[in-house]
# Entry
Amino acid sequence: MGMTVVEKILARAAGLPSVKVGDVVEPRVDLAMSHENAALVINQFHEVYEGTGLSAKVWDPSRIAIIFDHRVPAESPKTATNQKKIRGFVADHGITKFHDIRGDVGGICHQILPEYGYVRPGYVVVGTDSHTTSHGAMGAFSFGIGATEMASVWSLGIAVNIEVPATIKVVVHGEFPPFVGPKDLILHLIGKLTAQGANYKVLEFHGETIRKMSTSGRIAICNMSVEAGATSGIVPGDAETLRYLREEAGVTDPIPCVTPDLDASYVQTVEIDVTRLVPQIACPHMVDNVKPIGDVVGTRIQQIVIGSCTNGRLDDLAAAADILRGKKVAQGTRMLVFPASSKIFAQALDKGYVHDLMAAGAVVMNSGCGPCLGVHEGALGDHEKALSTTNRNFKGRMGNPTGEVYLCSPVVAAASAITGVITDPRKG
Amino acid sequence: MSKVIIKLGNDISTDDIYPGRFMATVLPTETPQFAFFDRTEFNAQLKARAFASGSIIVGGENFGCGSSREQACSTLKGHDVAVVAKSISRIFLQNSINLGLQVVICPGLEAGEGDDLEITADQVLNKTTGKAYEQVKLPAARKGIMDAGGLIPYTRARLLAKQS
# Structure
């Protein structure tokens, strides 16, 4: 029996000739990522070593990445003190893949990992963030874990007691119509599968639409796979993966790709034709409450957000700038833009996108997660509505339980910024 | 015997259980104050210790969906409550086992607030209605972690075994 791409990755990482769904394996971890919640991981890590007489040393400092992104710059003394503690730990343990709050190498963890070539096809990646599924875009098996589990990984270098997940094959055909793209595809898929439709399973993406899709688009779809409950989303490494890693991440060493066997076994196959797909909106308060844009056009919006690990890359900012160039953000609507990384911010400056967006009235902020989860920067007022390119719209998500968050693509967000109401970009 | 202190619907997210704006608080001793913070009445009752130890939160499908934030588990553990739900999202379930928060998957459960439940090894008995519901066994792979009393002692034992 052939293996899916995740089965192949897990078999290799666990040192086994083959694995099948339900097997319990302990894969070697290639990369372990965390952000500010490393403060909690550090606590748990020291607790593991307590009373053992062993010195608390991480298994391999070169395989740990820590990126500050959730609350940058710190919004409170508590966060600043957590960050200070992590800096101390990073120095003590010689962790090199550390991205502090900086305007040159900073950014959101899920952007930094591919951008710096830290993730490769075939890797096992764990992260203390549910959107660690993003790195499936690089052909890696990557999934979110809690802080205590990360402390265990830091100690042992393996993920203990992992059950080999079943895989759903998603085959995507057709060419996107104008103003429709990867974000609409993933929102449509989540609406179809429901928020728990892929729970404990992997979404493996195939088809000519995926093959032609840029790494940026692939990150967006893998990022949101977790919103259908998936353990991970994955696009098996291919020519585009190699192009991105060589040309954009500057990787020079060999990059072997892992691909599924032709006779691999899938628990379900979902076929999607995007030829007639229309812009999709996830309505409050669940990400699977997805509707075609026509159902919500005209809804008054107080805050537009473009950015995040889902849609804060250069092509996203370019799409928004193209729509907003020479126009103005509607009075009564505020527009926040936060690029996914410092590097993207710099590229957007060079290309004039930042100027276009600011001239239109957008506030361009430093790279980080702030507005997405309501931690700081961009909280909603009572009963305000936001239209956002981020990945979650749970009640209270943007810091206010009476607020409402609608999710969409960057082009929908930009077109709506001009009118102040949800606007179909195809008719703008 | 344990009383159901709140009955919740489907897709109760980690933002509901522990809002993102409190994520800078990481210590398990400090997280319980923020449990279900935006459900103000329930949060106030939790903080006032209005419920007996071992009380039960009943959830629907996909309980704990969303973030990997472990505070969503430590905040409930701090109140010594258990969770019984029709289904539980992957990361939340794993975090619960790792931290020793009692979680039970019981797809058919029907129970209302105030009902008395008894959780046995393979069933949940609603003593108020007299009906019994089958549990879904937690994955066998997790048993070692539960038997060790959580992932920290489990990992500690593995680490020591590796050294010897």
Observations:
- Chain A touches chain B through 58 residues (CB under 8 Å).
- The mean pLDDT of chain A is 97.
